[in-house]
Write a structure and sequence with these properties.
heterodimer, A: mainly alpha, MetI-like fold, 2 domains, 78% helix, globular, B: mainly alpha, 13 helices
Amino acid sequence: MKGLRRLILYSILGVVALAWLLPMYVMLSTSLKTPREVALGQYLTPPSSPELSNYLVAFEVLKQGLLNSVVVAVPATVLAVLLGSWAGFFLAMLKFRHSQTVFFLASVATFLPYQIILIPFTQFMAALNLFNTQWGLILAYLILNTPMAALITSTFFQMIPAELQEAAALDGCGPVTFFWRILLPVAQLGIVSTTILIFTMIWNEFLIAITLTQGPYTQMATPVLAGLKGNYAQLWHIQMAGALLTSIPPLIIFIFLGRYFIAGLMAGTLKG
Amino acid sequence: MRYSKAHVLLFLSPLGLIVVFMYAMMAWTTYVSLNDWVGMAPAWSFTGLSNYATLFRMERFWIGLENNLLWMVIFIPPTAVLGLVLAYVLELSGRAEALFRPIFLYPMALSFVVTGTLWAWMYDPGSGVINSLLEAVGLKALSQPWIASPSQALYCMIGAAIWQYTGFAMTLYLAAIRDISREIIEASRVDGASDLQVFYYIVIPNVRHATMIVVAMLTLFSLKVFDLVWVMTMGGPGNSTEVLSYFMFVATFRQQLVGLGAAISVIILILAIAVVLPYASWSMKRLQA
């Protein structure tokens, strides 16, 4: 009975796991095949010898996009987390009369689809001469992600015992010192999780990226990858190599910082 | 900790400015939707609700709306149910969790552009993975046109989204199952309840909270889905897979019917608000209590 139960449980997990891994497997193995091998359509067979030149071709197309993604996502993430946690601290720990209102308005702004601000965003960026620039993208992602960073960090800050604040206050520590010297180091898990979530969201984002930029010099990796599909239609090995190259940063984060990735993902729903 | 009015201003003004700015932009979009703005430069000629009237007469609008609703109906239940079942099976199987959880969750780390690129190929009727595999195992008869067929493409795309989001639902459910008190489950086991009975009578009613979150998040996703459509089908074949967000983009930035595009945005906003307002007030009550 015990053995049968285990067999059933593991069969369910095993079957679903195979289905979930299959796309990744074919993506990886095809990205290492020659066009002739790909044409055979035997996608389960591993490549006879890894054709790394596919990655060189894909990288040549994507390198500017990947660089742009880094140049945009890193500062936008850092600034959004800083500004967000700055407010998140106040919302979570120093509740004032209108904390609830601010929290509510920020969470509505966080969850609404980007489409609703897309038209004024393009006009705003054009007016500031930031259309089709990396500064424009950084500003856009900063605006869109700061409310989310505030909410998520505030859910993490709420888990920090109130005594810490009281003790700091007794020592004459004001809110600003408390935030920099005590809260940020103590709430590391929350800060890292928020940073990872927001970085991944910006890195993977597409709608804002394709609306605010055009052409190869300013576009981030996701629009370039989407364009690859047109220029390298049916050349699956190049497309898959490009898709994997674009996925490297988030996958590395997922593999090595999985715990934080999960914490951020859950906090991103304001699960509490 | 003591704080002054100056501190309120200091800490909340960056967030406050951004939030006010976002609401101002929403109001601006709404106002644009009442104008007959064509072309990329702002053109203010107030026409009241005529953009909406035009929209409601367009078949393309109704196709988009219908597809968004189909997304909700077809995407959400399997994702939530599979997520819950996997979470429960992981919980029962104990040590296997460390191995299997990342396998179900990793698609969540990928961009929809990556998922779209990958699955467009999986579903390609000629040299795609699924048809090739069917042929390899002697089931060529089951081959389908998949993404190339107007009647199947939408479901194909939803399949890719299920692949991506099931791990997300599973993670939320797993946390919720862990929150159920051990004693309730132990007690029912002592009374001879089977795994299925525990699932049905204890797990399902006690993860309602997670279900709310999963359904709200997946509904929002179904309303704003754009990247997958762009990458996998560009709304085609025909406009069989078009959704409102895609139509909005095409109307605004390709056809330069900005007023009309704004009207579509406002409709997306109204649909999203129906989910976001209750969800935000629910979260606020729990977190700011």
